[in-house]
Each structure stands twice: as structure tokens, then as C-alpha cells.
Write a structure and sequence with these properties.
- With 822 residues, the protein is an alpha+beta fold.
- The chain has four domains: 196 residues, no CATH class; 301 residues, Di-copper center containing domain from catechol oxidase (di-copper center containing domain from catechol oxidase, Orthogonal Bundle); 37 residues, no CATH class; 106 residues, no CATH class.
- The protein has a five-stranded antiparallel β-sheet, with helices on one face.
- Strand 6 and strand 7 form a beta hairpin.
- Helix 2 runs antiparallel to helix 3 and helix 11 packs antiparallel against helix 12.
- The longest helix is centred in the middle third of the chain and has 23 residues.
Amino acid sequence: MILQSSALSGKLTWLLICVLACLPGTISRIKNINLTPGLSTCYRRFSNVTLNMVVGKFLTWHCESRVTTSTSLLRLSYPQRLYVYGLAQRLYSYGLYRGKRQATRCVRKEYRMLTTQQRNDYHRAVNGLKQNTTVQPNVYDALAMLHSEMQILKAHGGPCFLGWHRVYILMYEMALGDEVPGVCLPYWDSSLDNELQDPSQTYLFSPELMGNGNGPITTGPFAGWRRPSDPSNPNSRPAPVIRNVGVDGQLYSRQSIEMILSRNDHSEIVSPNANPGYDIEVQHGGVHLFVGGDMESLLTSPFDPIFFMHHAFVDYIWELFRTKLRNQLNIDPSTNYPMDHNIQFHGRDQMMDIANLTCGDGYSDQLMATVVYEASPSCSSQRPTCNSPYLRCQVNVGRCIPITLQEAPVMVNPGSLNLRPGFVNQLPGFVNQRPGGQINPGQNWMPQRFRRQVHLPATRCSGRGSRSVKPCQNSFCINGVCDINQWVYVPVKVVTIRPPGLDKYKSYPVINGDISTVNDIYHPSANSRTQRVIESRLGKIPKGYSHCHENGVGQIFVQSQGMNYEGLYKDFSIIDQRLATTMSIAYIAVKNPGHGVSQALLRATDSCGRICHTSCRNQRTGAFEACSGVLELDARPPMMYSSTLGDAMLDIWDYGLGTGKGKECPSFNNDNFFLTFYCDFPEYLPWVDKMTAPPTQTIVRPIPTPPLVFYPQPCRISKTCVLNIPCFSDKQQCRFYGETHQCLGACGRYAVCNYGFYTEKYCAGGMIFVEQVKRCSTTPCSKRGGARLVKIPAWNSILSPGMATNYRIVRVRGGTVVSGKR
């Protein structure tokens, strides 16, 4: 009886297997799981944001860059924590609570404005940290590892982002000064590089400056740098620091910075209430993506030294915003901490942990007691030089833009040749210098030994998206161990619709002997059915990267990000953009589940940063349905993944042996696909429903600041600088980049237009600023004689509409107010 029951059980098992085998589709060991609560919350914040207003990739990276829940992240050891604690204590001694100040302030300059000696000292200091093993594995890596663990959540996704990173780069700057006294952290103004037709060709990524931007860093001062080894696998060889410059992402633009600076409260430029177009953190993610490689992951980004220069620029933008709050709006930026949110770890009294400071402390003015920013480099027709061999003046916009990798820097000191403005390059808008003479557009003269090799600006055919395809170099690291054998490959379909911005491909039909140029033969509207089915579904054109061009051949970037492991993989498929709809195949690597389970978030975007839907196969019906794109896979059959890329390809294309005729044509195995990306240019994020009402939580918003009204009165820049011209508008003080004016009654003080607002500056050594030539002279202010009375508009005469103009009579000596009365 027992034998009969066992036999019956075996038959039923085989019957069940046969029934399952006959069901449509394949019962896969890959399955889709729900979004994490953190991802859902972040997506919902942007659920009503139309993607024609902001690049979709900016939003998804902002939400997804901190989703890893691995327990094997790099953690600071006790000696490392002691070192960090020592740096934190020095923040107090420099004025945070004790009121002390350093003897000299660190002047942070744009990286390309450093002198040769300053640049060499900076490189030497950074390499010194990497070679300093008093803290294991070295001081640099110990500081970089601080940007991990729970700090990822405390430093990103809310108002603590600004203060946390300010403290972080201050600690890094102190460490640099320990290696080479006097070294200050420079900033990288990436908006200058964004002015190039192809920003990836900026000379910044040259052997002379930051080293190459393609793959491992093999040139420049940081050549051969590697990430630290995994502490639990000390014998594993660490991966090199990797970049994929210009493959994805977008640098800060002048317009995006001006949009941030146009806001009037901190709550308008940080999560969760800021519009993403004005959100300084959302916008900063584009630079992480642009550099790519290790910079693309928050866990690994500080291992590339360019990380700290990028965040110094973010901090510079923030300081410009704080100056506006204080000087233009009479708002104390140190107390203007956004409170109308419930983001975990971002409360004003939440401890940062990196320096025993709260998030509110990060907004303190005292943190900047040891630092001052030199204004971003600018130029004008009166000052048509940028004073850097790596920058050139674009006079028509008053900006200093980088030379490219195809150009050689002019290694010459203008002072040594007594050069004066005058040489006009053969390229319109770019002004160099020549000995003597005035600006003469008809001449092109400079001694050959000083002449820069000039190449014409890139054309549309050499811009982003239309140039040759760039590869993605992956590190193949999982939890700090870097080896391709840890990965398996999941095949995915990529279905795309013709980009709505690609109007014509110039392949036209001939009708009755005449060429019709209304639409090319591939356009959806060229056929009544495709027009009805495809073109009618397209909404507004989603926003893409500013340097993105459609030309018929495109890339869809696909990537996986570990959810229960630390690891990122990125690749792409090539698509034919001419067709109304087309399909391609990509292979995404994820962690080999081995005897456990791997969870990964799979995403796709096109080369313009426009996002794609995710659809998963229904295990019962075989149909593809909308899904989260978070996949879980294990090692039990049937496995819909392969151990190598070659096997993954052969599992899709079956090359069976023929009978007497060699190999047959390969057959296509459609059952091996579990995930399909649909790139159909959605108007909203596809993973959450568009909300028709505000969130259920009660948000108490601050009373809005009354709109600022400017009258045709002198424009006040600060309490020590007023210009004898009106401000341009209530949103912008000035329009022309590099526009310069002297402060009223101030011998050596002047203001330069930067990102729509004036930055106050002063001539070194107490020298006179000459308004006519817009530069400092060699005459000291003290030679102007004694004190004199100057009438300056009072503060409320500019900020308060409807009030009579009030003035303050002050006594000025040498450009400094020494006394005053109403």
C-alpha cells in the first residue's frame, strides 16, 4: 500500500511538471519584487513632475543612488574614527563655538586659476594623503570611506545635504594642509566646461591636469590610483579608479545655477519641497553621471579626487545663495534651515556623526570663518583674458571657457611680456593677447612660440549623441571584491519608439515622380497605421541633456544596481532611431546568486537621459506587464541568466548543428527574456501613480517672503558695497557675465557679475580699482588722501517699496568706512 502511494505521488509530480511545461511562458526563477519604501517615497515626491521640465535621469539617480541595503559596505575602523574625530575637534578650534579664527583664510579658487606652484602643491598634498599610512589603508581612503555606511542617508536626500558636505570638505581641506601647509581645496566650475560643444573634450581631463577620463586613470597626477581593498578580503586586489567621462549625464549649466540662485529660501533649493529644476542636490547629480565610473555611485565617488573639487563648487554655489539671503533679503542663512519635512536623518537637530555636529550646525556662518571663495573666472571686452593657460575668453558672453584636448595651452606669463588687450583670435568671440596695440578684429598676430593650436568648434556631427559611441568600463566589484567571475548576465529586450525630436531623417518618398519632403519614409506619420498607433500616443517631448542630438543612431543605457549587495554595472544597446519602433537586445550583469539570492534594481535611459518603462513577463500568461524593475534571482532552475556574456548570447540565439550542411541559421529563443524596457518617452515617472492631491501628511510651510521690488536706485551688494547703477530686476542683479563696477565710496572694492548676481571683491594690498579699465592699479588707496564724506543709500531705501530714499552719511578713508551717521 505504501509502495502504491509512493508510486502515485511520483506520477502526480510528473503530471504537475508536464502541466506546468504546457502553460504559456516559462516559470522563471527570476521574479519581480516591490519597490523599497524609500524608493517609493522618493518617486512619489516627483510623481507630479512633468519630465519635459527636468531630465528624468536626474530624478531617478537622485532616488536610486542610495538604495543599497548591503551589510558588507566599507566601515571605518577604530583608528580611522579616531583620526576623523581629531579633524572634527579642529573645526571647533577654528571658530564654530569658541570664536577663534585661523591666522589666514583659505582662498578656494577655480582649479584652472591656480598658479603652477599652487597646482603642484595641491597635487602633492592629495597624493600625500594617499601615501600616508598612519591611518590604514591610508588617510585619503579613510576620508573617502566616510562617505558610506549610514552617512549616505544622512548626507543625501534632504536639507542636511548642504551642511554635511560643507563639513566633509572642510575636514578634507584640513588634511590637505597637514600634508602641504598652505594648500587649499580648489573647486571645479563645471559650468565653464558645459559651454563647449562637446564637454568631454575639456582640457581638464588631460595628463597635465586631472588625468584621462576614459577608463582607469593612467595619466596625470593620480595615475594608477586604486580603491581600497575589502577589509574582509585583504588579499583581493582592489580595482583601479575608473571614469567614463561624457558617456552619460550633464554638467552644471549657467542657466541651472542662475535658477537655483533665483530662489529666496533654503526650502526652495533642497529636498523635499524644492522644484527639481531649482534643487541644488538634484542638479549636482548630473555631474556625478557625467564623470561616470566610480563617481556614478555614492559609495565609491570620493575615491576619485575630482569628487571633492565638484562638491567644493556645490558649496560655492550655496555660499552665493547664502550671500543673497543675507545681503539682498535680510534673511539669516544660519537659521534658515528647512523644517517643513519629515525626512529621516535630516532634522535640524539630527546628528551628522562625522563631526559631532547637527544638521543645523552645518548651516552656521562660523564654518566659513576659515574659508573664502574667489569668484568664478570671468572676462570682458575690457579684460579679454582669463589669466590661465587653460581658459580662453569668450567675449560675446563674458565667460572663460576651457581649451580642449585638441589644443595646447599657452604657457606664458602675460606680465612678463607686458601684454595688453589687443589680439583677436581668428575664431569669433575668443580673444587672446598680443604685445601692444588695441583690439583689431582684422589682425591675427602672435609670436609662434606663444600661439595656441586652435581647432574650430565641434559641429553638430561631432556633438553628443552623434559622435562615435563611447564604451562603458565597469569595475566588476561586488562588496569590494572586483572580479568578473562574480557576475552573471540577464538578457533584456529594449523596445524604443522614434524620438519625437527627430523630425526628419532626409530619406524621402517619391510620389508621382516628385520627392516629397513633408516626412521621411521612416516617420510614424508617413503611414496612417503608425500615425494612429504610435504618434498619437506621444505627448510632450521629454527634456534631455543640453548637448544631446538625435541623428538616427542612438544608445540605450542599461544598468543594474545591487539592492542586497554593493555593486553597479552599466552597458548599452544600439538602436535605430529612424524607425517608428524598433527592438534591440542588451545583457545586464548582476551578482551571481550562488547558493543565496541576488536582488538588483534594473533601469534604462537613452543617451539624452530620458527614462524607459520596465515590464516583466507574467509567469502564467507569458505577457509582459508593468513592473518595478527590482528583480530577485536564485540558482534554482530554470535559470534565465548565464555565467558569461557569450553564454547569454548563445542562450538567446540557438546555433544548432545542421544535418550535412554545417550550422543552421540561429533560432531566436524568446522564452529567455524576463524583462523588457519600453522607451516611449513618458511624461511622468512610470513606477508610481500620478498623485491628484497633495500627500496626506500635513506640511506647515513658512510664510512666503513678499516679492522683492527694485526701483531705479543704486544696487546694494552688501553692507560695504553699493553700486551707482540699479539692479537689473527683483530676480537678478545683473545680466552680463563678468560685468564689473566699483563700489560707491570704496577705493579698492568692486563687484563682478557671476550667475546673475554681483560678487564683491577688493584689490589686493589696498590698491585702487580703476573704473575706466575695470582693473586694479598699482596705486595704493592711502595716496588718495584723508577721510571724506560719502552719501550711500540706506538699507531700507532699496528693500522697502514705497519708501522715500534714505541715505547714510559715512566717512571713508582708503576705501574703508571708518565712521557714519544717519
